[in-house]
Amino acid sequence: MMKKIGIDIVAVKRIKLKPRMIELILHPDEIKILSTRLTKNSKREFLAGRWAVKEAIIKTLPSPIAMNQINIGYIDQKPSLKNSKFGEIIVSISHEKRYAVGMALKKD
C-alpha cells in the first residue's frame, strides 16, 4: 500500500483575520468553530493551524484544490478530515507560540 505524506509550517504572525482570507481558507463548518474562539490570538492560531494542515493535505492529492473545500472537524477532540471524497487521510495539527504545523498521511 502506497502512502503519501505532506507537512507544512506557518508563522502565526503572518495570519491576518480579514474576511476574505478566512473565506479562502476555511470551510463553512470551520468558520463556525472560529467564531467560538474568544481572543484575536486564538483565532489567528486556529487559522494558522488550518492553513498548515490543508497545505499538507493538498500535497498528498493528485491535483490542487481550494482550501475551503477541505473540512477539518474533530473526533475525540483530535483533528479529523471530514471529506471522505479525498480518501483516507490522517491529519495532525500542532501549535507553538509563534508557529503552527500540519501533517497529513494519505493511504492509497
Largest sheet features: 3 strands, antiparallel
Order of helices and strands: EHHHEEEE
Q: Structural class, judged by helices and strands?
A: alpha+beta
Q: Helical amount among residues, as a percent range?
A: 25-40%
- In total, the number of strands is 5
**Portion in strands:** 25-35%
In short:
This protein is an alpha+beta fold.
Describe this structure in words.
The chain has 3 helices and 5 strands. With 108 residues, the chain is α+β, with helices and mostly antiparallel strands. The strands form 2 sheets. Strands 1-5-4 form a 3-stranded antiparallel sheet. It has a two-stranded antiparallel ribbon with strand order 2-3. A hairpin with a 2-residue loop joins strand 2 (72-75) and strand 3 (78-81). The longest helix is centred in the middle third of the chain and has 21 residues, at 40-60. The chain starts with a strand and ends with a strand.
Highlighted features:
alpha+beta; two-stranded antiparallel ribbon; 3 helices; 33% helix; single chain; 5 strands; 108 residues
Task: Give the secondary structure arrangement, pairings included.
Blueprint: E1 3-11, H1 19-25, H2 28-35, H3 40-60, E2 72-75, E3 78-81, E4 89-96, E5 99-107
Antiparallel strand pairs: 1-5, 2-3, 4-5
